[in-house]
Structure formats: structure tokens, C-alpha cells
Amino acid sequence: MDIKKADFIKGIRGTDPITDSDTPQIAFFGRSNVGKSSTINMLVNRKSLVKSSGTPGKTKEINFFNINDKFLFVDLPGYGYAKVSKTEREKLRKLILWYLRETKPVERILILVLDAQVGLTDYDKEILDIAIKRDESVVIVLNKIDKLNQKKKKIAYDSVATQTNFPVLMISAKSGKGRDLFFETVFE
Ligand SMILES: Nc1nc2c(ncn2[C@@H]2O[C@H](COP(=O)(O)OP(=O)(O)O)[C@@H](O)[C@H]2O)c(=O)[nH]1
Ligand SMILES: [Mg+2]
Questions:
Q1: pTM to 2 decimals?
Q2: What is Dmax (Cα atoms) for the chain?
Q3: Measured from the CA of 52, which atom of ligand 1 is nearest?
Q4: Which ligand is nearest to the CA of 146?
Q5: d(Cα 131, Cα 60) in Å, to the nearest integer?
Q6: pLDDT in tens, 61-116
Q7: How far apart are CA 137 and CA 121, in angstroms?
Q8: All domains of the chain, ordered by start, with CATH?
């Protein structure tokens, strides 16, 4: 996909008209450090549209980006960052669940980003359970596959694919591998 435009619109912490806009939303979920921000930057071919790594403070909001005036990328805060206080973590969890349950976009696809070496955690399963109950579209992305050899990639893929009926893709935000497949799958 040719990205002609990728602009930050705004970050929100609660009710805002943008959540219910009629522009399709592609929303990135996943634990802290799995590479959500890096993945978005790779997909839009920008080095730092989204601030990535080392700045957990930056990700307390749900950030919206306008892509090609056609759809929105939504970067959700990462859940489970160890250095964040329990109260703060609970707040983020509530914000993420609020976006998932209470907002009503006309069209939305959830992208659940996992670290290929870690696979599905309880947090990811909680997100998937809610998505299934709400009949949301989901694509699971196994990131950081540049760190795995062929054999480990297969193990990582099988372990996740046997636990879900959603499409599972393998990508590397670092090398760009899987970018075309991502857009094909999401816009199929
Ligand atoms: N090797 C490798 N490292 C990655 C990849 N994607 C992200 N990272 C690194 O993982 C860390 C967390 O990435 P970030 O995008 O900030 O994760 P986020 O918290 O989910 O948004 C950073 O140090 C990234 O450079 C990848 O595909 N391969
Ligand atoms: Mg991030």
C-alpha cells in the first residue's frame, strides 16, 4: 500500500467524538514493548510518526492517526508495563477496555500485536474474549520474527494459530517483513 498521508490527529483519555467517526479504524492492541508503535511506523514508512520504546509515559492516551484520508490507525496504550504503578496500570486497562467496549465506530479492525517469542498471554486472551463476544474483526500479528530462525518461527506460529480462529500473520517491524501481507489481510 502506498502511504501518501500519515498524520497524528489527537490523543484521547476518554469520551471524544473521534471514537465514533465513520472513518474505518484499525486499532493496535498489545502488551507494552511488543512493538505496536514500531509496527505502525513500519506500515506507514515513517521512522517516528509514533514515539516508540523507552517512553512509556508517552503512551497513556489512545492516539489517532489519519492515513491517506481513508482510515485511522489507533495506537492504544500498552498494558502491563512493569515500571508503571499499579494504580496507573489499572487506569490504562480501564481505558483500553472502554475503547473496546463502549465506543461505536462504524467500522473497525482490531490488530492484536504479540511478541513472537512470547505468544498469547492472559492479557491478550482477555482482549480476544471480549472481541469474540462483540463479534469484532481481529487480525493477530506476531512481531519481531527477525529474532527467530525458521524452526522457531513455525513453533511460534503454530502455538498461536492453534489457540485462535483469527488470521495470524508474522511480521518484523524492524525489517519490514510481512508489510504487504498485513495490508492484504486487513483490506481483503
Ligand atoms: N528485533 C526487533 N525489535 C523490535 C521490533 N519491533 C519493535 N522492536 C523493539 O522493541 C521495543 C519496543 O517497541 P515499541 O514499538 O516501542 O513497542 P510498544 O510498547 O508495543 O509500542 C523497541 O526497543 C523496539 O526497537 C522488531 O520487529 N524486531
Ligand atoms: Mg508504543
A1: 0.94
A2: 46
A3: 16
A4: 1
A5: 22
A6: 999 999 999 999 999 988 876 677 888 888 889 999 999 999 988 999 999 999 99
A7: 19
A8: 6-186 (3.40.50.300)
